[in-house]
């Protein structure tokens, strides 16, 4: 799984070169969000076959002369290594992969990218070792609370072990438990599945189509995760400034306390309805005014608010909800979430 590739990549009629150019221009307008935007641009360049240009973008993000230090340098290095290997720079790619494994990142994404790169080049033993190193670090034996971001580690390891003919172990059992696919992982990762594609038996072909659809559904769900359903949060000073400048928005925000309560209530309702991957984005008045100008609209137009929240989320500005109960509350009070808006009666 490559988390930097957008859903637009599913459409063959997308002009990936033009989309990459658009994202690069947007990165110039929003330098504070340049990293996620340029990573998306690099993904489009890879899809267009312009892999050397994608590498140039990765190098730009990693350069010590970059305007802002990379927030996720190991993720960028992993993407660069995967891309390099695809256009005959295997030695350099392997050196980067070894460096990432040695750095032991706490973020699951670099592990998944380098392990899948090894797997795709038939380095199954090395892929298995990489997935296992990641699981050992991020999901020690006995783990019951499995963050969504670590699912690809479990699923990738399960898949490689099936290819290697290894028996199930504790992590494989955990992968089976967290999988939401309608088809079992053993079926999805069955090495013999390829043979059924040459079958003349309609029942076997239908069963294989069902398995492939389930697998694609799981990947689509994973690829949608970087862009959460996000609720807009205004810190009190920003909300005061917003309502002073645009009093027409006071019907949306009768008070800061009511605003905070509405955020928590809305997120709980979405969670109860089964909506996954919820998040919160924090607005600022200058940013909102710039967004309104880009839409050729007035900041006092309340219909812009959800669009602004969605745009911030797509630019990688969302923080996931809910926080850990012992972590600080999302509202910025400095109080633990469980004693603030995460309390049983808070909403």
Describe what this molecule looks like in 3D.
- This protein has 347 residues and is mostly helical.
- It has a domain at 229-339.
- It contains 16 helices and 3 strands.
- α3 (51-62) packs antiparallel against α4 (73-86), α6 (108-120) packs antiparallel against α7 and α8 (151-164) packs across α9 (170-178).
- It is globular.
- It starts with 15 loop residues before the first helix and ends in a 27-residue tail after the last strand.
Share in helix: 55-70%
Strand adjacency order, main sheet: 1-2-3
Radius of gyration: 22 Å
Structural class: mainly alpha
- Give the mean pLDDT: 84
State the distance separating the first and last CA atoms: 37 Å
Low-confidence stretches: 1-12, 219-225
Helices and strands, in order, run as HHHHHHHHHHHHEHHEHHE
Q: Roughly what fraction of the amino acids lie in strands? A: under 5%
Helical segment tally? 16
Overall strand count: 3
How many strands, which pairing sense, and closed or not: the largest β-sheet?
3 strands, mixed
Molecular shape: globular
